[in-house]
Amino acid sequence: MHLMLAVVMNLMVIAPSPPAEATHRGDFDYLLGDWEFTAVSQQYGKFRGYWSAVRLGDGGQILDEYRVVGDNGETFYVTRTLRAYNAVSDQWELVSTDQGSGLQNLGTGRRDGAEMRIEQKFGFGTPRPSIWRIRYYDIRPDRFSWTADRSADGGKTWTTNFQQIEARRIGPSRSLDPLAAPRVAPATIWGGEHVEMQVTKGGAQLEFDCATGTITEALTTDPQGHFSVKGTLTPEHGGPIRQGETAQVMEATYSGVIGNDTMTLQLRVGDKELTQYTLKRSQRGKLLKCK
C-alpha cells in the first residue's frame, strides 16, 4: 500500500501539467503558413527564400520547411524542422534535417516575453559543427524578424548577428489533416441477402429476417476500411406478440470491412459469432421477414 502511494505521488510530481501545455501550445503559431524572406549572412552574404510551416494533424507539433532559392527559383539549400513541446521539461524540442546527416541537428526553445529563443546544434558529424542561438522577434501577423549568433568552437566564443532574416507572410496559417484519421462511413443505405442497414451520422439501424439491430456509435473505419462498433440485437419471431411480452435486447458487436461499394459484416453476440453478411452500397436488403 505504501509503495503504491509513493508511486502515485511520484507520478503526480513528474506528470505534465495540462495548463502549462495549453499555455505553450501556441508559442510557434506565428510561424504557421507561408513566408518569403530575405537574409544576410556573414558567411554567405545576401540571399532569399521561402519558409512554410504546418501544424501536424490534431496534435501540437509543427513541421516547417526552409528553402534558399536563386534568382531563377533554383534551390540552393533546404532543411525541414519538427518542433514539439515537452511539458515535462517545459521546453520546445527541435530536430532538423540536413542532407547526409539524418536527424542530428537537435535544439531546444522557449518563449521569452514576446520573443522565441532557440539554441540548436548544426553540422553534426562534419568537420565544422556549430551552435546557433536564434531569436525570433518583432513578431507580427504579417512579418517577423530573426537573428542568430553562432559559435564554431563549442560555445567558447560567439559571432553576434552571424545571420539575420526578415520574413513577410505570403500565405495563411494552415494545418495538415491527420494521416491515419478514422473515417466515418457516409449516411446511406446498404443491403444484401437477409440484411439491410441504414447508416446515420451517429450509428446505424439494421433489419434482419427475424431481428432488428442498432449500432450505437459512429461507424468509423481505419485506413484499411476495418471497423468494430458496439450495438444491440433484438430477436423477433413469427406470429402475434403475446400480451405482456417484452422484447429481448442483447448487446452485440458489429465488425467487418468496407471496400469501395461492398461491406462485409460480422455479427457477434456475447462470445458467439453469428452469420456473416455481404452488403452493397445504395442497395435495399432482400429480407424474408418472420411471419
Task: Please describe the topology of this protein.
Elements: H1 2-14, H2 18-24, E1 33-41, E2 45-56, E3 62-69, E4 75-86, E5 91-98, E6 102-112, E7 115-122, E8 130-140, E9 143-151, E10 159-171, E11 175-176, E12 183-184, E13 188-192, E14 195-200, E15 203-208, E16 211-215, E17 220-221, E18 226-235, E19 250-259, E20 262-269, E21 272-281
Parallel strand pairs: 2-11
Antiparallel strand pairs: 1-2, 1-10, 2-3, 3-4, 4-5, 5-6, 6-7, 7-8, 8-9, 9-10, 12-17, 13-14, 13-21, 14-15, 15-16, 16-18, 18-19, 19-20, 20-21
Supply the key terms:
single chain, mainly beta, Lipocalin, ten-stranded antiparallel beta barrel, eight-stranded antiparallel β-barrel, elongated, disordered N terminus
Description:
Helix content is 7%, strand content 57%. It is mainly beta and 291 residues long. It has two domains: 158 residues, Calycin beta-barrel core domain (Lipocalin); 99 residues. The strands form three sheets. Strands 1-2-3-4-5-6-7-8-9-10 form a ten-stranded antiparallel barrel. The chain has an eight-stranded antiparallel barrel with strand order 13-14-15-16-18-19-20-21. The N terminus is likely disordered.
